[in-house]
Specification:
281 residues, mainly alpha, MetI-like fold, 2 strands, Sugar ABC transporter permease, transmembrane, transport
């Protein structure tokens, strides 16, 4: 086969897959969002934005992302650094830490529901220690802070491994000679981390943060399991428009709004963590 044609042949299956399962549905969703029976219109967006739950769901989604993603980044960096320095048992520890990757969003929410519900582990422990006389309904409108905390903890536990895997791979690409040279010149572990590890990890940090931020704006199942309607988020409202209110136009508009927010934050992350042209490890 001609060497010039071979690359195009190799990427053809992926291109067809993306067109069939991503590009085509995106065109259909955009058509639904910007059209009604009367033709092109922005009525679906006006309806969505004017709904009283929209600012609340927007605030909750942004607040949850702002609370979860930095904690996950710090934990992933710490865990990746620890794994990289381990001489024995590295693979076992990494395997154990990445187990939550094999658990679905809904299953993770149900696991943490078993901890926070009235008959759950937390109430049983507090009752056994004599802290409470009767079970407390933590996941209720009376405890909005606990609902938020439960959702945040479930997300941190479930999705930190995504960033961990990316950062472990990135740290593994950093030449050991840099650290050895820094040790010779008396650099402390903190300086080696801030002057070598973090700068060299920029491409991996870009990938990890972009992926995690996008997924944070798409959170739904964990919130549905733990918060239900007490903690509305953008993706939950999209589901409600599509399946509860049977309003596919408004659901499509919500989906495009989430897409727009994700693209905006992606551009910010790429700008802040931009890698200089020609930079290599």
């Amino acid at each position: 086969m001609n060497a010039r044609i071979l690359p195009y042949v190799l990427i053809l299956p992926v291109t067809l897959f993306l067109c069939l399962f991503f590009l085509y549905p995106f065109v259909l969703v955009s058509k639904q969002a910007f059209s009604t029976g009367a033709g092109f219109t922005l009525d679906n967006f006006r309806e969505v934005v004017s709904y009283w739950k929209f600012p609340i769901s927007m605030q909750n989604t942004l607040l949850l992302a702002a609370a979860v993603v930095p904690v996950q980044l710090a934990l992933a960096l710490l865990m990746a650094t620890m794994v990289n320095k381990m001489q024995k048992g590295r693979d076992i520890v990494l395997y154990i830490w990445t187990i939550p990757l094999g658990i679905s969003d809904l299953a993770a929410g149900i696991i943490w529901l078993a901890i926070f519900e009235q008959s759950g582990f937390l109430n049983s422990m507090m009752s056994g220690l004599g802290i409470v006389d009767q079970p407390v309904n933590f996941l209720s409108y009376q405890h909005p802070g606990v609902v938020f905390l439960a959702i945040a903890l479930a997300e941190i536990w479930r999705a930190t491994a995504i960033m961990l895997v990316i950062l472990v791979a990135g740290i593994g690409l950093i030449p050991k000679e840099y650290y050895e040279a820094a040790e010779v010149f008396g650099a402390s572990p903190w300086k080696r981390f801030t002057r070598i590890t973090l700068p060299m990890l920029r491409p991996s940090l870009q990938t990890a943060l972009v992926l995690r931020v996008i997924l944070a704006f798409e959170i739904f199942a964990v919130v549905a399991a733990l918060g239900g309607t007490l903690f509305p988020v953008l993706m939950g409202e999209t589901y409600a428009y599509q399946f509860d209110l049977l309003n596919s136009g408004a659901a499509a508009a919500m989906a495009l709004i989430i897409l727009g927010i994700s693209i905006a934050f992606t551009l910010v992350i790429l700008r802040v963590l931009r890698v200089p042209k020609g930079a290599t490890i």
